[in-house]
## 1
Amino acid sequence: MDNSDIARIFSDIATLLQLKGEAVFKTRAYQRAAEIAAEYPGELSAIADDLDELKSIPGIGDALAKKIQELSGSGRLEYYEDLKSEFPAGLLTLLEVPGIGPKTALRASEQLDIHSVEGLEAAIEAGEFEKLPRVGHKNAQSILRHIRSQRRQSDRIMLGLALPAAEEISGRLAEACPDASNITVAGSSRRMKESVGDIDLLCTSDDPPAVTKAFAALDDVIDVLGQGDTKASVVLKSGLQVDLRVTESRYFGALLLYFTGSKQHGINLRARAQSMGLSLNEYGLTSDSSSDSTGELETFDTEAGVYERLGLPFIPPELREDHGEIEAAEDGLLPNLLIGPDIKGDLHVHSDWSDGRVPIKEMVVAARELGLEYVAITDHSAGRGVANGLSVERLRAHNAEIERVEAEVAGIRVLKGSEVDIRADGALDYTDEVLSELDIVIASVHSAMGQERAVMTERVIAAMRNPHVTAIGHLTTRLVFDGVRSREPVDLDLDAVFRAAADTGTLLEINASPKRLDLRDAHVMQARKAGVLFLIDTDAHRPSGLSFMRYGVGTARRGWCEARDVVNTMDARAFDEFLALPKERRTGKIAVRT
Ligand code: DGT
Ligand code: CA
Ligand code: CA
Ligand code: ZN
């Protein structure tokens, strides 16, 4: 809970009090408190334990100070929650739309049952919203333009939120509607794109209207944007939009292919069909009327059936991005993509020795539960003060603790590691002698991210030249927008970095944390072509983080990686042998045992 969160809540309270018709002095006090919180130079949560210090801030009296305390302590405020519950759900969201005043927002939710920005958009498009008192056509259209321009900016949700939400809503639909079969996530989530515009679901049923109806009535649904016999579009409480298509099983293959996209892949496939005298649509294939055949629709239960009819092997969803996949398929040159179960170890994991949440042993036990054969504990080095990094003394104690845990926990190898900071000048936080005591060294940039290209490139390559550095962690340091923030990548000469990685035998990490996904898909592709070997790891800071692996695998697949491109597909023994090689010999594709 930082100052801006506190400010937003106070400002929301002011708005709600105003809507309730409370005295002006009361709403003003909250408005003022919001401004004070936003402008306060330190972190309010840091002084929240000290009521007197809070009250010494001009404009903050006893009641407000206690509210700041409550917010900082628990992240929520009883008074605010109670106040919100007096109003329709989603009202505050509507109020954030430029051009909508409190009275209009209230009418929209009460009279038109609108509770989300998407719902508002649909009501404007349908001409319903403009009929509200004091709105009118011109006003409504201007609001619509605002919505659309805001959307372009922070519109997409990261895969790490979208995919679990898609799976959850699929489960809810299955429960609510037992005769919905083959419930499948399609669209960009199925292609494992790092961010997702909306969720697309597909299922089969003998009674499609019953399914769309049950879907629109699910508890998680806050707004229904459209509902027909075979389609429905809804907004979930979380703000995610979900499109559902229901079909008979004989159309399932062609519809899944269509609905998975990408759009350009679909267009390319249609062109190919056309060149074969066929016409491809979301129901199946028909022969062109110009040919002498009947023009009847050919249908397909599976996507593979459609591909086969087009003379192609099945193309995995992650490859369907118009990156030459159809040509490769035609020539028999599709990669034999890495799959989740190929991954045998996780080599970037934190514990409570630095900024992780639980002891080493808990992380190790959790890794074993996931079926991993080996795990490296890589807490931060001392340069990274905020992350409680390890001094040389603590690193050595950390090594001893890892050995102790390894002896104690059967069935998994535990490697001694460190995520060592690459300082601004390219030096590392530990000496070579200290690094040589470790099994795994992940070197990462965490500071001075604004360096210019030549300096940053030389900095990273300097770290690669160190014989003890196993891999570079999250190379570009970019952050995917997670609803709160994002971060641009550092400026690097990627060609030079990838060449240096291949030359020195330094692995590049595909950091699987959904807010990082760094290397990203396009960089994986480029690095792989340069001969780089990868390490996919989760950077987990708590046990649940170990399950991020699938996002890293998806990203590797989007970069056309096979198991032999990724070193942690090796079993524990082969991996030990690999680490025993001098760095410069850790090159070339790895041998995969089948
Ligand atoms: P997103 O939601 O922006 O992350 O991306 P997608 O790929 O999930 O796109 P979405 O939800 O608009 O549509 C789902 C799929 O439906 C898309 O990948 C391909 C297909 N599709 C949608 N609109 C069109 C279209 O105008 N033409 C073609 N060929 N396919 C379309
Ligand atoms: Ca979509
Ligand atoms: Ca969609
Ligand atoms: Zn890091």
Note: The domain at 252-330 is CATH 3.30.210.10 (Beta Polymerase; domain 3).
## 2
Amino acid sequence: MKRVITFGTFDVFHVGHVNILERAAALGDYLIVGISSDQLNFSKKQRYPIYNQHDRTKIILSLKYVNEVFLEESLELKLEYIKKYNADILVMGDDWKGRFDWVKSDCDVIYLPRTPSISTTEIIEVVKTL
Ligand code: C2G
């Protein structure tokens, strides 16, 4: 029984998010998703998400291949979350390549290629021009 963990904001949910969650789920038997809190997102991106953390959590939890979700309050707590949720594999998109290699002593780390040509930032920009 392999437990997979992944992290993200998943704001303005789109197919790139579906693709990574689907591929992460396929690497094991149980998928746990850490959802960046509104505050963590502000500290990473200098803006609050369009969808608040409650709505983002509800959306991710509704997916058929997601088993469990929790709020990620800090990037530095990765290892604590991995231990708490007993994860065997950490999956991240390759925009984070190398950034979480420091947890490799406790957990396998796999960076998957991002889905090209779609991102929350790009969607926001397109909508602004309409
Ligand atoms: N993603 C993807 N393809 C895209 C867009 C996003 O594969 N076109 C992936 C990202 O690589 C990430 C996940 O979807 O693994 C969530 O993306 P974001 O919501 O942008 O997550 P981010 O804000 O980078 O938060 O602890 C790490 C962070 O919480 C990750």
Note: The CA atoms of residues 11 and 56 lie 7 Å apart.
